[in-house]
Amino acid sequence: MHTAFILDAAKAIQQSILDNEAALESLDRAIGDGDHYINMKRGAQAIVGMQEELASLNTALALNKIGLKLLSTLGGASGPLLASFFMSMAKQWPAAENANPLSIALAFDAGVQAIMLRGKADLGEKTMLDVLIPVSQQFKQLAEKNQSKAYICSALIESAEQGLINTRDLIATKGRAAGLGERAIGHLDPGAKSCQLMITAVCQLALTP
Ligand code: ADP
Ligand code: MG
Question: Which CATH superfamily is domain 3-207 in?
């Protein structure tokens, strides 16, 4: 995976966020403060605006710069969390000659663990981690079994969708929605929705011949 793919992925993510304005807006209005769409849109715009700056960097450096940029642009609770995801993934990113599904899965996992550490959260707390943790676990398992890129991408799209759906019946124990108690039940988590959108956009791009 090269920096050119990361740049295309940023554009695909931005498009997906713009296409899902209504969903992201209404979810964060229901169990948050309504700013999640604006935050994500601003973050995606900032990254797409860095195309020239990123193009000459290797993938690890580009991912680290993306993290730093998100830290200063995204905002909200999700800003610093997604920023640590990219910066920690960058640290573990394999050199070009060692890039394969397993080394990329391990870098992705380092990013997810950074979110867990920073947000002091785990599976089942109605956050973005309800998408990210199962996706990361499945990514590692399938890569260890030497499954094809196409198989892994399709499986991760399904896993992200399932993780998102699982947030519907959870009570939130982290973030703004934690104050709502049982009133959060019946609503998908907005951060889980945006992570599902991002994972789907990247996997669909990777599936494109
Ligand atoms: P804010 O809650 O500050 O308005 P956003 O609306 O941008 O920030 O993001 C809210 C999302 O952040 C939630 O839907 C949830 O997925 C995620 N989130 C909040 N707190 C945590 C946490 N401690 N760990 C993981 N994710 C979290
Ligand atoms: Mg919010």
Answer: DhaL domain (1.25.40.340)
Q: What's the rounded Cα separation, in Å, for the pair 130 and 94?
A: 26
**Gyration radius of the chain over CA positions:** 16
- What is the torsion angle, in degrees rounded to the nearest 10, for the CA atoms of residue 121, residue 124, residue 126 and residue 132? 70
**Residue 33 Cα, ligand 2 centroid: separation in angstroms?**
5
Residue nearest to atom 4 of ligand 1 (CA): 76
- The per-residue pLDDT for 1 is 58
Indicate if ligand 1 lies below 6 Å from the C-beta of 190: yes
Give the residue extent of every domain in the chain.
3-207
119-144 pLDDT per residue, tens: 999 999 999 999 999 999 999 999 99
Please write the tens of the pLDDT for every residue from 88-102: 999 999 999 999 999
Kindly give the number of the ligand 1 atom that is closest to the alpha carbon of 28: 6
